[in-house]
Design brief:
heterodimer, A: alpha/beta, six-stranded mixed β-sheet, 16 strands, B: 322 residues, mainly alpha, 58% helix, 0% strand, binds iron/sulfur cluster
């Protein structure tokens, strides 16, 4: 926890964690009795559902919910479907959660092994989107916005995390294979690797252009990487750039090299005492199995955060599974938690001083508080916000500004969608 | 059953600096007390009465308004108490109780609560109240008359009046040291310059007030006074006199810096402060009023929303990153 220091004349600086040279071994966590996978499609009771209770699944099998939805998850284990339920994600996002009882007979699916004989972007999109690091192939397939540059970010997006740094450090060969593969299947020659300055040397082995970023949060954010580093990429800011995390690139590399889908997620686990442990666990592993393996205990009132302290999500249940983009799990003791308050904005300006994109947060929060979302966009730069959470962590009135911002953006999106439908 | 365990769930971020509104106001309150104590030593029991009555009534008005508009009780945040304290600091020690009572009413109810309470006021509530009362009962704000029954071992005349009436030669009896140490007539908490400076610097270092405003305000006063002084030393006093008398110091550190009525962007803070300082001296040197700080701050409060529009351009995110 970054406390206000005695000297408050300059705003508090948040810095990314640096992966030191001597690091403890990665602990491998095996899934317990069950695993859970999320499929990005709203749950409905339909007779056409492709998955049913009791269905057998194989390790590496691609699981889709309905014939008319392409969304899928990939099971890292063999077993039997135990439960299918709706799951409500952040901002009320509707998903389907599929729980699988693990049966250890190790049968594996070879659909990807066959499909990869003809490596293509379509194959990657059809099989690799659920890999650790959650590679987004859709950004490469949008015909309206041709991508000219692929940027692989070998830095971590949030604080306390060393997941992507450890990939650059330990698996740079896979990252290289992944980047070569991406180049091959997309035909895009311009591939750039962005790393924190202490990893520039390690990153050199990837054989691509390397750019380094500073240690101040949130400089690893893709939007800031573009604003600060990639200004030479043509005059139009919207000239296509596609982003992948180093982990995603590495796993793409492994997949195409071995013909198997790598489904072990690397993550940084931060204990209550602040100590950190690198963990590797199959996607879908319940957090309680990780807690058990590491001997960390959680009590009522504590907080479990998936993702970093600035942008992660607090979860409700110890059965919550590791997802393809879970780079960090943080256990926070109840004592450490500062809850937000309902004090109004006092116009202290702390938020304005820390915002990386110069959003006038003190004005913004007044519009948001009044529910004037369109005004917020037109008068107070709502759309310039990159959702880093910095403002909220320094707010003297302890206003949940970030939550207001997400709600407003969500509401505006829905309004725009409704307008388009009616037009 | 560990799975039923109730975890704390809330929205990101999960880190907070731990700062809060009440800490801030208590800190400012404490910093202001340094100057108040010197005033209490000078003026004795009447000053103690004015200060405590002012703080208490400000808090009561806040409570009354909380109940009237059915909002959660907010006197715990220390803001009302601070308003009461700062208001009392401007007053002569002999101010009648009903003037204090009216003053805190105007400050808390009309200056702050009408605009929705904390953070909503476009003007500094203390300044609003003081300006109104100065017009309503000018006789109670004449520091010479008000303090006539005191025996001082220094020149018992409000320096700004002396200067206004007789020019710079009349104020030669005030040394810089006297003014710093509070050996001058004035508001209860406004004369002990050294105390105000120490309190102000403390608040700046701790980050409770924005240094840009204080520094720019003092620079505005100093530079304008210097310009006048150079143009005609016979007629106009030098910077040191203007910086150390009247409400300059309390204004620069405690009044102009009030959060809600001041800008937050860098350039606007400098403009705001400078303008306040310049206006202060202009009013003193060529206006009808003896003291310029109150009206100068009212004026910069007024233009604050316009000034604060000068802000760095937002960095637009790239359109293609989802
Ligand atoms: S969350 Fe948005 S408004 Fe707040 S500091 Fe980050 S970019 Fe600025
Ligand atoms: S940090 Fe909070 S209280 Fe301060 S100006 Fe920003 S939103 Fe208002």
């Amino acid at each position: 926890m970054k406390k206000r220091s005695f000297f408050g004349i300059a705003p508090p600086k948040l810095t990314y964690e640096i992966l030191e040279d001597a690091q403890p071994e990665t602990v491998s966590v095996a899934p317990g009795e069950k695993i859970t996978l999320f499929i990005d499609v709203p749950f409905e009771k339909a007779s056409t559902a492709l998955l049913k209770l009791g269905d057998e699944v194989m390790g590496g099998e691609k699981l889709r919910m309905y014939p008319d939805s392409e969304a899928y998850a990939v099971s890292p284990v063999a077993g039997k479907i135990d439960a299918i339920m709706p799951f409500l994600g952040i901002m009320g996002k509707q998903m389907t959660s599929v729980t699988i009882r693990v049966a250890g007979d190790g049968r594996t699916d070879d659909a990807f092994g066959k499909a990869m004989q003809t490596p293509s972007l379509e194959t990657a999109g059809a099989f690799l989107a659920a890999l650790p690091g959650k590679p987004d192939f859709d950004q490469l397939m949008d015909a309206g916005r041709p991508v000219k540059t692929i940027v692989v970010i070998g830095a971590d997006q949030d604080l306390l995390t060393v997941t992507n740094q450890s990939i650059v450090k330990n698996e740079i060969a896979s990252v290289k294979t992944g980047m070569d593969t991406l180049r091959k299947i997309t035909g895009i020659q311009n591939v750039i690797l962005v790393v924190p300055s202490h990893l520039v040397q390690a990153a050199g082995a990837a054989g691509v252009g390397v750019k380094s970023i500073g240690n101040a949060y949130p400089s690893a954010h893709p939007a800031l990487v573009v604003l600060n580093l990639l200004t030479d990429l043509g005059s139009s800011r919207s000239s296509g750039i596609a982003f992948f995390s180093a982990e995603a690139a590495a796993q793409i590399g492994v997949a195409f090299k071995t013909g198997q889908l790598p489904l072990k997620k690397h993550l940084t686990f931060v204990k209550k005492d602040g100590s950190r442990q690198l963990v590797s666990a199959p996607i879908g592993t319940h957090v309680k199995d990780i807690l058990e393996t590491l001997g960390e205990s959680v009590k009522t009132g504590d907080r479990i955060i998936f993702g970093g302290p600035m942008t992660g999500n607090a979860i409700y249940s110890l059965d919550h599974p590791v997802q393809p983009d879970t780079d960090t799990i943080i256990i926070q003791d109840q004592e450490e938690i500062v809850l937000s308050a309902d004090t109004p904005c006092i116009n202290c300006g702390q938020c304005v001083r820390v915002c990386p994109t110069n959003v006038p947060v003190n004005e913004l929060i007044r519009y948001l508080d009044a529910g004037e979302y369109e005004q917020a966009e037109q008068q107070a730069e709502l759309d310039a916000c990159i959702e880093c959470g910095y403002c909220t962590s320094v707010c003297e009135a302890r206003i949940p500004i970030f939550q207001f911002i997400r709600l407003a953006k969500h509401a505006l999106e829905r309004m725009k969608a409704a307008e388009e439908e009616n037009a | 059953m560990p799975n039923r365990m109730k975890l704390t769930v809330s929205h990101a971020p999960f880190w907070h600096t731990g700062s809060k509104v009440s800490t801030k106001y208590y800190q400012i309150f404490a910093a202001a007390l340094i100057a108040v104590i010197a005033g209490l030593l000078h003026y004795g029991i009447p000053a103690v009465a004015v200060v405590t009555f002012s703080v208490a009534t400000a808090m009561i008005w806040e409570l009354v308004m909380n109940m009237a508009v059915r909002k959660p009780t907010s006197i715990g945040d220390g803001n009302a108490a601070l308003i009461g304290l700062l208001f009392a600091m401007l007053l002569p020690a002999t101010t009648p109780w009903w003037v204090v009572l009216t003053g805190t009413f105007v400050a808390v109810v009309i200056g702050k609560q009408i605009y929705g309470g904390l953070g909503g006021n476009p003007f500094n509530p203390v300044i609003v109240s003081f300006a109104v009362l100065m017009i309503a009962w000018p006789q109670h704000f004449d520091y010479n008359v008000a303090l006539v029954n005191y025996q001082f071992d220094f020149n018992p005349v409000y320096p700004l009046v002396l200067f206004k009436s007789y020019g710079p030669s009349a104020i030669e009896s005030f040394s810089i040291m006297d003014m710093l140490l509070g050996r001058q007539v004035g508001g209860i908490g406004a004369t002990f310059g050294l105390g105000l400076i120490i309190g102000g610097i403390y608040l700046i270092i701790r980050g409770y007030i924005r240094w840009e405003i204080s520094v720019a305000f003092l620079a505005g006063v100093g530079l304008t006074a210097l310009a006048f002084n150079l143009s005609n030393p016979e007629l106009y006093a030098g910077p040191a006199f203007h910086l150390l008398t009247g409400f300059t110091l309390i204004g620069a550190f405690f009044l102009a810096t009030e959060d809600s009525s001041s800008p937050v962007n860098f350039i606007p803070m400098l403009i705001y402060g400078l303008l306040g300082g310049i206006m202060t001296v202009l009013i003193r040197n060529s206006g009808a009023h003896v003291e310029g700080v109150v009206y100068a701050i009212l004026l910069i409060n007024l233009v604050n929303p316009i000034i604060d529009k000068i802000r760095p351009k937002a960095k637009r995110r790239v359109m293609n990153y989802a």
